[in-house]
Each structure stands twice: as structure tokens, then as C-alpha cells.
Amino acid sequence: MKNMLSRRTLLIVLALALPIAAWAGGGSVILLANTGVSFDTGATSNSNATGDIYWNGSSITFIGKAKGAVLPGFTGSSSFGELSQALIQDFSTLFATAAISSGSLPAGSIFGLITNGGNYAAAMVTSISAGSITLQYVTYVTVVPTGPQITKIANNYSYTPNGFANSGISPSTIFTIFGSNLAAPSTGAAAGLQPSTPAIPTTWNQATVTVSAGGKNFTPGLYYALPTQIAAVMPAATPIGSATVTVSYNGTSSAFAIQVVPNALGLDSYYGTGSGLITATNPTTGALYNYTNSAPLGQPVVFWGSGSGANSLDSDTVFTTSPHPVNQSTTQFWIGDVQATVLYAGSSGYPGLNQYNVVIPSNAPTGCFNSVAAVVNGVTSNFGLLPIEQGGGSCIDSIFGITGNQIASQSSQINVSSGSLFLFQSTTPGTAVGTTQVNVGASGNFEQVTGSFYGSSSGLASIGSCTVTLTGTGGSTTTETGLDAGTITVTNPAGTRVTLTAEGSESPVLAGFYGAQLPSTFIPSSGGTFTFNGSGGANVGPFVASITFPNPPLIWTNQGAAATVIRSSGLTVNWTGGTAGTYVSISGSSSSTAGVSGMYTCIAPVSALTFTVPPYVLGTLPAGTGNTTVENSTNFATFSATGISSGITFGGVALQVNTNYN
Length: 662
What we know:
The strands form nine sheets. Strands 32, 33, 34, 35, 38, 39, 43, 45, 46, 48, 49 and 50 form a twelve-stranded mixed β-sheet that branches. By secondary structure, this protein is mainly beta. Among the domains are: 24-140, no CATH class; 398-661, no CATH class. A hairpin with a 2-residue loop joins strand 14 (207-213) and strand 15. Mean pLDDT is 86; it is low at 1-23, 189-196, 473-478 and 505-509. The radius of gyration is 26 Å and the shape is globular. It has six helices and 50 strands. Helices cover 6% and strands 44% of the residues.
């Protein structure tokens, strides 16, 4: 049942993303009065001439070439966890050698700095008194140590972080090693497998990888080896359990611990990010499906990935013309909320690369953002998005009022500028047991992102689909640049007008984000039309936009079902009300004690009055505490302004409960 594609198509599928991970260190330190610390080494001193900062009991002074400043708009552990080297660098224009007084350093405040070693660092005040100050800090080392350094290992396609049910590397999987000084710089040889090459080498650019497991050493084949990244194939004979990975090039790296698991599938995504548009091809022509060439209902497509499990019948390093199935009988594919027929699941012939021939169900949802996920032996893959239409062609998404041609046009641009306006009412658990609180607010986001980031967005879902986002420990890289849209107001049906507050005017990263806390009566139960007015600013011209709120409001009738969720059993949500023609989003999140968190979002038409979040979605979240939210959202409306290529408005009424995920 399988169709082998042309090698040209397979080389497209094998094209691998090359993110560079910065090494970070940090910890916590208690500084007594007249004590300093170096954020490069963590060493403290009683001298005001060594280290990076000095605490004299009433202020922090900077030592030597070090300089810094309090980061505006950032406070608390949540904000601290969002910091990355790139974000700290964005604030570096504020950094100065002037002392920071204790009055500017309450508990929870965060300051950034450049150290004497030339590295970027940030510190959060966890407690402060006249006698001492306690700091939690992180330092991003820009001077790379000599010798190979491994910072991260992940499935080459999903990039799933550690701590989740679908983490780990299975035998016969392509995995990626991130770090520095991993291999010699390329001398011009192509990074990927060449059509004339029957095998992949075990040494590439002078780099060799060793996997140690079960008392044995294994040498994987390499698809490429670069100074910052290596792609290797986990040998099929690697035993399940704890293992370590080392890289040898001008020395040998420290052993990096991983977990070898029976299977943990990663599906290849179009932009190589592990999310967003999925890589899917026509089994006959090899053509890629995308926003302007949707997959047709009822027809077979081919998905690509790695991690179905050990394939001992085929070689770890040599291409074969007679590939074999791998866990085909236990492989499921879900297109939206409909299970698809799997014609073939297994090796593609290329070492570590899996092929999945799947028929798009004739009753699958259509639109631009239909979710795709696979389940192998009960373990769910990463989630991707696939445009689907009855006869193919450019997709049309009813929720977002957007076409595939529009998405493709913006995705191909170097940068995409857009704006969104959101009005919401949420009822959440109160601080006292059994109580609730109502929050009403408005927000506006005007930003510029790269076209590839826009195209790979994983936060969208068509009706009948679910998406999942998993977050590991550590910071993230900021890809947005805010756009100044001037003064923005919102007016309700009764004529009450409120001005949204502009955030982050000190930084181009935060500028362009607006918000307002509104009176609890701002959105009447009868709904109505709300109008946003923008005066125009340095980057965005004047605009007028409106949102029509639903009537009657949605009522979540079985909130108690979400108090405790058994992830393997799914969650059924029932509701009444909501305006005809709109939709309902069911979302939830959980965090574990290990510091990882995940969230899901499912979309259903309001007319359905019920939706069951399937076990394969909930099973990706870590066991822990979190919440479940049911929201009736308005249909998206558009607005235009000079300086942005698209503008959308929408609103929502949300009900949230606390949830234990077991």
C-alpha cells in the first residue's frame, strides 16, 4: 500500500531546521550588606572591586564594566521564566552604571545587566531587608567554552521537551543534538543526504556521536554535523531505559543523559518548528500540501516523521528499497476529531525516517487549520495543522475569515505586520473556596513577526480540531516587535468609553501592546456592538473596528465534570446558549512539580451543545494542577489601517474552573 516518492521530495522532507541554543547558567544567592557577586561565576566577595554588583544595604552598585537596569513591566517568577538572552538584549539600551536603590527593588522585581565577562544576565529579588537581599539569577554565556558542549537533545521533528509522556528518543529515530563546538565548520559539503549516497556516515565534519546504554556503546549514523547541531539516528539495537550521549570532536563532551523509550513519534512540520503547518505530500506526484494546495477529502496523503519504534529489519545507516512496517497495527491518525484510515506506517527506506500513508476521512473537518496528530501504542505525537477542502485548492477558514492565498502571501514575506483587538469577560475561581470573580477587559496587540513565524503559528484551530502546546523549563526567544498604534479606546453599546493603556513604551519588544481593566457592567447580558477607535501612531494609522457580542450568553452546564479530569478518559463539556453561528473553545492547562506545563484548545460549533476532549489530547498534558476554560467567542471581523497587512477583532465570554489532571 505504500508509495515511495522521488528522492527530490524525500530530500525536501529531510530538510532540517537549525536553531541555535544558548548555554545558560544560574542559581540563587543571599547578599549581606557590603557583599558583591559575580554572575559569571556565582562567586561572592566582601569587596566592592570584584564581581558584577555590590549590595551596600540600601542600593545595588555596578562594578567595573558591568551595567544594568530594572526591567520595566517584568515582575515575579512567571515573568522571570519568560526571560531569554534575546529579550535581555532588547533592554540593553536602558542599561547604565547608575546605582539601583532598594526602593526600586521590591520582592519580585527583576533587573538585567551585562556582566564584566560580556554576558547577559537577569536577577529577580526574592526577598529584601536592610540587612540582606536574596536574588535568583540566570546568566547567558556568550563566550562559548572550548570543546564540544551539549545543551539539549530532542526528537528531530517534534522538539518535545523533557517531562512529557511523548518525550524521549526511541530506537530508529532521528534525533537532534544542540550545543556548541560539536563539529568542524562545514567546508561546503551539503548538510543533508545526497541522492547518490547509499548510506549516511558515522563521522561527519570530524564529529562522532556515541550512545551508551545497557552497558554497551553504539555509534549512530549522522545526517549532518555542524558546530551548533548534529542530526543522528538512534541505532535500532539501543536498549530501552536510561542512556547517555557524548560528542567527540577536538575532545569529548560531557555525557548528556537521555531516556530511550519504545516509541515517541515526532511528525515533520512544514517550517521545521515542530508545530504549525504539517508536512504532507501527494503519494503519486510528491507535491506538498499547503494553504494554497489543500488536501482533498477522501484522498490518501503521506505524512513524515520519526519515532515509531525500533526497525531492526532495515539498516541504521543504509538506504533500503524494501522498507518495512513499524507498529502499523497500533498506529492511529486523527484529522480534527475524526480517526483516519492508516494504509501504511513504517520505514520510508531512509534510516530513521518514517512514512505514513493515511486517507483523509470524507467527514473530516475542512478549513485552513485542521489538527493532525498520531498515536502509536497509546503515545501521542506532536500536533500539526493541515488545510483541507472538498476538492483541494486554496483553503477557506470560516472562523477566522481568511483564505489560504492570504496566509501564503503573508507567510512568504520577510516580516508580517498585523493587529488584533479583543474584548472579554471571564468568570474565574475566587480566592476563597466556593467563590468566583468576574473580570472584564480589553486588549490590543499590534506587532511585526517574521513570515515563517506567522506561517508556523500553532495557536489556531479550525472547528472540530484541537491543538496542544507543551512548554519545558527555561526561557523562550521573543520573535515579536511591537508597533505603535497611538491611543486606543473602546466604547460599549451604552456609550461608555474607556482608554486602553499602552504597555512597554520603553522597549520596542513591548510597545504596541495595549490593555484595560473594564467595569464589571461594561458588557451587558444583552450583548451588543462595541467599537474600538485608534488615533494612529508612529507605525499604525487611524482605524475604527467593531465587535458584536453574543446574546444570549453561553452557560456551561456541567462545570463539576472538570474539577478532576482523568486524562485517559477524556472530558465531555456541555453547554446551552450562545449566539447561532458562533463557536465554543474548550481549553485547559496543567503544570507539574517538575516545572513543565502544557495546554490544549479544542474548537466546536456552538450549535453542537457538547464536545468531548479526547484522551489522546489530554494524555499529552502533565499530571498536575491547572484549569479548564469554556468560552463562547464571536466570529472574527476584520479592520484595516495603514502600517498593517491585516487586522482582526473578536470577543469572548469565558467560564473557568480549577482542575486536577490525573
